[in-house]
Design brief:
The protein is α/β, with parallel strands linked by helices. It has eleven helices and ten strands.
Length: 272
């Protein structure tokens, strides 16, 4: 497993995303991932699976200090008092004394982010949260949030894949030493039959999904959290670090396209 170091903090380059994983499926997926060597798990209040994630972590033969655990606040919990209350509730559901990263899941335009950040700073001071950040923030919103906050922001979790490379945001994160956590790095499966990825994958004896993940984490300051409950896919997602894509291949794979992004999400929603 490779790691990315940001602000002096080391984060496993591949983690497990748990969106849409619930109940026993979520417990089994997290348990399997930890057995395979994952040490980075992402959840959220909105996912309704913090209890299952927490039980899997508690039951695993993994030292809590070796695990990077992230959860995310509902945007309706962005006000100072709600941040304090909701974070403690998340910790109770997760069965842990702290989370390594607490994010605001989406911007809340009705709440001054300075209010959110003040509560986050106190949670850090109290040892309940180690690092804080945001999710689904544009470059402009991220810059404003950093200016408003009296606590250093560590990460921005956003959709990031070859069809949505977020170049301006990525450059800003790299320049400011912020972590960009890539969710949906496989474009919800939309890259699996991509001709360029198939070609590159054949060259290296990998799958298109593995090449897409390698593309993501080969960027500086980027880690990826693909979701899967399939043991074979979970194992394959870790088997990407014996390949280094050339600069030319990185550029070929990078093809910004709102159309491709939209089609990938539509197909996933329709199950086609």
């Amino acid at each position: 497993m490779e790691h990315e170091t940001v602000q002096g903090v080391t984060v496993p380059a591949i983690g497990l995303g748990t969106w849409q994983l619930t109940g026993r499926e979520c417990y089994r997926a997290v348990s399997t991932a930890l057995e395979l060597g994952y040490r980075h798990v992402d959840t959220a209040q909105a996912y309704g699976n913090e209890r299952e994630v927490g039980r899997a972590v508690a039951d695993a033969d993994v030292d809590r200090e070796d695990l990077f655990l992230t959860t995310k606040l509902q945007p309706t919990n962005a006000r100072y008092g709600d941040v304090q209350r909701a974070t403690r509730e998340s910790l109770d559901r997760l069965g842990t004394e702290h989370v390594d990263l607490l994010l605001l899941h989406w911007p809340n335009p009705l709440v001054d982010f300075a209010d959110t950040a003040r509560a986050m700073a106190e949670l850090v001071d109290d040892g309940l949260v180690r690092h804080v950040g945001v999710s689904n923030f544009s470059r402009r919103r991220l810059r404003k949030a950093r200016q408003a906050a009296d606590v250093p922001l560590f990460a921005n979790q956003v959709q990031f894949h070859p069809y949505r490379p977020q170049r301006d945001l990525l450059r800003y994160c790299q320049d400011e030493d912020l972590l960009l956590t890539a969710y949906s790095p496989l474009a919800r499966g939309g890259i699996l039959d991509d001709e360029v990825l198939v070609e590159v994958a054949t060259k290296y004896g990998k799958s298109p999904a593995q090449v897409a993940l390698r593309w993501a984490v080969q960027h500086h300051n980027v880690v990826a959290i693909p979701k899967s409950s399939d043991p074979d896919h979970l194992e394959a997602n870790l088997d990407i670090f014996d390949v280094t894509l050339s600069s030319a291949e990185m550029e070929r794979i990078t093809r910004p396209s709102l159309l491709r992004t939209g089609l990938a999400w539509a197909k996933a929603e329709l199950g086609v």
